[in-house]
Write a structure and sequence with these properties.
Layout (H helix, E strand, L loop, with lengths): L16 H10 L4 H8 L3 H8 L7 H11 L23 E2 L4 E7 L9 E12 L11 E14 L7 E3 L4 E4 L6 E16 L11
Antiparallel strand pairs: 1-2, 2-3, 3-7, 4-5, 4-6, 4-7
Helix pairs in contact: 2-3, 2-4
Length: 200
């Protein structure tokens, strides 16, 4: 999840920069301190805080860990206790490139988080593997093909339409879509509102 790119028009509506900046200020951390600890450049972090760049999943996870910010705190919440209509799925910015994602569960739901990913051909989580602070992750490919890569496994896990896969999100991994792209439902338990893995 090395690659980063300028924010696209589709991603422009998903604003996480102000949240990151506010948390950094509340922690009394300089941009230089956060950038160094998260292994990114100060210039990139500045662009991210101004919503002028997208980060890979791994980079967002690292920044959240440095800020002691639960990853789920970046999501726009869906109203708790209400029906969420298809046209009203709130967009989220969970890192990666060439994909759009929506949170399908209310922010207050801590038992699980359901995320819908619409991934363009070749898009995904990025080249750098990442881990999530959860116990189990379920993946259901609604259409297209998806490739999950785990550094400790020699062959990637390739999933087609209708295939499912359950794994430990605490293991380093990343994902990418095949030549037709992919539409994927991810279910992560517990939800991503708890402590970031490794944070005090």
């Amino acid at each position: 999840m090395r690659p980063v790119s300028a924010a696209s028009d589709d991603d422009a509506e998903v604003r996480i920069g102000a949240r990151l900046r506010a948390v950094r200020a509340a922690r009394r951390m300089t941009m230089e301190e956060v950038a160094a600890a998260a292994e990114v450049t100060k210039g990139f972090l500045s662009r991210l805080e101004r919503d002028q760049a997208n980060a890979s999943v791994a980079v967002l996870v690292r920044i959240c860990k440095v800020l002691q910010l639960p990853v789920g705190a970046l999501f726009e919440p869906a109203p708790a206790g209400q029906v969420l209509r298809r046209a009203d799925y709130p967009p989220i910015s969970f890192g990666g490139h060439a994909l759009r994602e929506h949170l399908l569960t209310p922010r207050g739901e801590q038992r699980l988080a359901a995320i819908l990913s619409e991934i363009e051909p070749g898009g995904g989580g990025g080249a750098e593997p990442y881990a999530l602070p959860a116990d189990v992750e379920f993946c259901f490919v609604l259409s297209g093909t998806l490739e999950l890569t785990f550094p400790h496994i020699s062959e990637p896990v390739v999933l087609g339409e209708g295939d499912t896969f359950t794994f430990d999100p605490g293991e380093l991994h990343t994902f990418s879509a095949g030549g037709q792209g992919a539409r994927v439902l991810w279910v992560i338990s517990p939800g991503l509102l708890g402590h970031v893995r490794g944070a005090p």
